[in-house]
Design goal:
By secondary structure, the protein is mainly alpha-helical. It has one domain: Fumarate Reductase Cytochrome B subunit. The chain has five helices and two strands, in the order ααααββα. The longest helix is centred in the C-terminal third of the chain and has 36 residues. The N terminus is likely disordered. It binds protoporphyrin IX containing FE (2 copies). The site of one protoporphyrin IX containing FE has 23 residues, from α1, α2, α4 and α5.
């Protein structure tokens, strides 16, 4: 008998979803906090940790994307699909695709900014990462703004995503959240 498509996300997808959700929220919080600190060893330390954790997010996002391509998302249950107007189905797909794009664009812009500003990234002080842009003040200024705008866009998408997930859970009560929770 052919296996029926799973109604839930698989264990690895769920583990990566929650791990990366926590990491991204922490990245965002630390990013906003550290830029306003006065120049100090503490600020430098936070900048380094932000960069190292950000590269880790980038690597985990690659694993996540490859896993997602290998194991497509479970289709939405027919009852949920029927209850959703067309724009909501498109928003559901669209926010997921955009978030995936930003999982790469945000850390890549941060990495490029660091290189352009003349501070190559040495991951956890051990692995020197290549610079894929030249040192340039003009480029660094543009990438600094780019990293910020992309990070803020991701934060807005996440807010919309969480609001939608909670609406499905508390208002529609359609069991969508359970697809992304550990357990049976
Ligand atoms: C992976 C997700 C990442 C998120 C969500 C994130 C988020 C942020 C945020 C919100 C800020 C504050 C922006 C502002 O208010 O001006 C920031 C600043 C910064 N980020 Fe990231 N970041 C990420 C990855 C990275 C990576 C991989 C690097 C470098 C390797 C990096 C380097 C920086 C630097 C150098 C700043 C300070 C910019 C400044 O001094 O104005 N970030 N980041
Ligand atoms: C930084 C925080 C978060 C990010 C970046 C994020 C990102 C994502 C992404 C990209 C997907 C699509 C997964 C895929 O198809 O591979 C997803 C699915 C999902 N997320 Fe989040 N998420 C975050 C936080 C949350 C929170 C706090 C909740 C719950 C309140 C939540 C609930 C869900 C649910 C229920 C799904 C599955 C939707 C479905 O059944 O199609 N997420 N999330």
């Amino acid at each position: 008998m052919a296996p029926t498509p799973s109604a839930r996300y698989d264990g690895l997808a769920i583990a990566l979803h929650w791990l990366l959700a926590l990491m991204l929220i922490a990245m965002f919080g630390v990013g906003v906090y550290m830029v306003d600190l006065p120049v100090s060893p503490q600020r430098l330390k936070l900048y380094n940790w932000h960069k190292w954790a950000g590269i880790t997010v980038l690597a985990l996002s690659l694993v996540r994307l490859l896993w997602r391509l290998a194991r497509p998302a479970p289709p939405l249950p027919a009852s949920v699909l029927q209850a959703m107007p067309g724009w909501q189905r498109q928003a559901h797909q669209g926010t997921h695709v955009l978030m995936y794009l930003l999982f790469f664009a945000v850390p890549l812009a941060g990495w490029a900014y660091s290189s352009a500003a003349g501070f190559p990234v040495v991951w956890f002080g051990r692995i020197a990462l290549p610079d894929f842009v030249p040192v340039s003040k003009t480029l660094a200024d543009a990438l600094q703004i780019g990293h910020r705008v992309l990070a803020m866009s991701l934060a807005l998408l996440v807010l919309a995503h969480v609001a939608a997930a909670l609406k499905h859970h508390w208002v529609d009560r359609d069991g969508l959240l359970a697809r992304m929770l550990p357990g049976r």
